[in-house]
Design a protein that fits this description.
The chain is α/β, with parallel strands linked by helices. The protein is built from 10 helices and 20 strands. Helix content is 31%, strand content 24%.
């Protein structure tokens, strides 16, 4: 069945809450179909609205945007006008109580707000589309996922790069043997003024999510995290502007072991910014390499190995050609993940950008800190679900 057609049929039907809170779809045509009610939660001046998450419901058939919540009066009015929300609230709890939305965009960038708001939205009956990083600790994420599973709610986390055309096409090509046997992954953070712990939590979570997309779940992690040249301690923990939980260090070198002997590394060090260039993920195989230069719409390149000679060697990164690769990139980078989320709600399965995938990215961050602080390798899944820097 075509996913797009199926989703539109789903959104155009009458829905009611059945036993256990599960969505039950009725196509009996009894009166006008009920539109799914959607709401947006953000916080102007503290996390604001991440990368278009306030606008994900615009233009969706069968979805009615009913309200926006934002504690900042000026920002609330501006966002409500921009997205066409008929109601605006200072307190998200009042909004959830009054409107009981079916769908919620948890749009603020500050992840320290995600846990409480996601729980409130799920408990009110909503499915949640959440800005990344998913939560600031594993304990928070575990509780949110457990609540969603109990109420049969679906969570999607905006690690949108895994669903872009180039990344999906590359994954399929790698599976067909484009690079031979995958041996190694090399991930590089943005390595700007946020180099180290902040870079890892804000942007590295995207890279960890892409690692798992290509080679599955990690088995173990070994890492060093330095702050001004010395190993970090819990006293180096700090909270940064984006409020993504405690972070530490200005230089990170982490290694992960995956199935089939695949090794992966994550590096974030400001001194390497000019050398590495764009932040992204390299996939090295026995017959070539691929590089994903990360962005809202990432670029993908392929490199075939060249032989060494007395003149050196010249390896050329060439654009990865795939169907529709020359088409203009859509500015609505949330479109595919949102459609997939809605299809997952309809068909009762986990979305591609699932809450579980979102929590795995956080777990890889926590493993880096656990290893760095203990000086030992740590195995997955992590038994200690507390924040290592707490």
């Amino acid at each position: 069945m075509n996913n797009t057609v199926s989703r539109r049929q789903f959104l155009g039907t009458t829905l009611r809450l059945g036993l256990g809170g599960a969505i039950v779809v009725s196509n009996q045509g009894l009166g006008e179909p009920r539109r799914l009610k959607a709401a947006v939660i953000g916080h102007t001046g503290r996390g604001d609205y991440g990368h278009g998450l306030e606008a994900i419901f615009q233009g969706l058939p069968g979805v009615e945007l009913v309200a926006v919540s934002d504690p900042d009066a000026k920002g609330r009015a501006a966002v409500a006008a921009r997205i066409g929300a008929p109601h605006a609230y200072e307190d998200y709890r009042e909004m959830l109580e009054r409107h009981k939305p079916d769908l919620v965009s948890l749009a603020m960038r500050h992840a320290d707000q995600h846990h409480a708001i996601a729980l409130a939205a799920i408990r009110s009956g909503a499915h949640v589309y959440c800005e990344k990083p998913f939560t600031t600790t594993l304990l928070e994420g575990d509780e949110v996922l457990q609540s969603a599973a109990l109420r049969k709610r679906k969570i999607a986390v905006a690690h949108t790069m895994r669903m872009t055309g180039g990344v999906q096409a590359l994954k399929a090509a790698v599976g067909r043997g484009l690079l031979g046997d995958v041996v190694e992954l090399r991930a590089y953070g943005k390595q700007d003024a946020r180099a180290g712990g902040e870079d890892m939590m804000v942007l590295g979570t995207h890279l960890f999510d892409l690692m798992r997309l290509f080679v599955g779940d990690p088995l173990s992690c070994s890492a060093e995290v330095l702050n001004q040249g010395r190993r970090i301690t819990t006293h180096d923990a700090r909270v940064v502007k984006d409020s993504v939980g405690r972070v530490a260090g200005d230089q990170i070198s982490a290694r992960f072991l995956f199935q089939n002997g695949v090794n992966a590394s994550f590096t974030s060090a400001g001194k390497l910014r000019d050398t590495v260039g764009r932040w992204g993920l390299e996939i090295h195989g026995s017959r070539g390499a691929a590089r994903i230069n990360c962005d809202l719409e990432p670029s993908v390149f392929i490199r075939k190995p060249a032989a060494w000679s007395n003149l050196g060697r010249s390896d050329i990164w060439a654009p990865f050609e795939f169907p529709d690769s020359n088409s203009p990139a859509s500015l609505k980078h949330n479109e595919k993940p949102v459609n997939d989320w809605l299809t997952a709600i309809e068909r009762d399965h986990q979305p591609e950008c699932s809450g579980l995938n979102g929590l795995w990215a956080v777990e890889m961050v926590m493993a880096v800190y656990q290893s760095a602080l203990t000086g030992a390798r740590v195995d997955f899944p992590l038994k200690d679900r507390r924040h290592p820097l707490a």
